[in-house]
């Protein structure tokens, strides 16, 4: 025997189902809004990390550009000095060797998070600015003919200016590294970095040797 539902009971069932569906839709909407409110700051923090990382990369490119400028000046300097009679051959050889050593070491963006690689780069650059160029500046005083060369004087002024540019570029790079690392190591930065698979790594400060922080003094 088949029982038939009363029309009013069927209507109540339909209304209950519709009410349940409405509640479910409302719950989904609330969940999506809550998720959006949670993700919005996270996306903003991720974008901030990307921006600061790119700023640090740009500043490092400026350091490299100034180092390249110095490396390009050195062959001209060596050729100019070679023209001076009886100039110290050992000094020129050391400058050339130091330049070759410094230009042979390249740092990629990933290398800037490796303290050992950054340290090797720093040491190679220090050999130019201190061991090589400084010795040249001191020993040139024994050669009046060399001091009187206008080309030599111009090159030494350019090298001095380049050393000052390198120092400023290093300072600006280190400031951007501090800004980026601070953002990354904050609680919010750490959470976002872990949630996105840790694409961000702390960068290494470029310190150089204590002696290399001072530009070689030009003295005639």
Oligomeric category: single chain
* Distinct helical segment count: 6
Let me know the average pLDDT: 77
Please state the overall shape, judged from the principal axes of the Cα atoms.
rod-shaped
Termini separation: 120 Å
CATH topology: the name is de novo design (two linked rop proteins)
Q: Structural class per helix/strand content?
A: mainly alpha
The H/E string reads HHHHHH
Per CATH, the class reads: Mainly Alpha
> How can the largest sheet be summarized?
none
Percent helix among the residues?
over 70%
Count of discrete structural domains: 1
CATH superfamily, please?
LemA-like domain
Evaluate the radius of gyration: 32 Å
Count of individual beta strands: 0
Strand content: under 5%
List keywords for this structure.
220 residues; de novo design (two linked rop proteins); 75% helix
Topology (SSEs and partners):
Layout: H1 7-82, H2 89-104, H3 115-139, H4 144-147, H5 150-185, H6 187-195
Helix pairs in contact: 1-2, 1-5, 1-6, 2-3
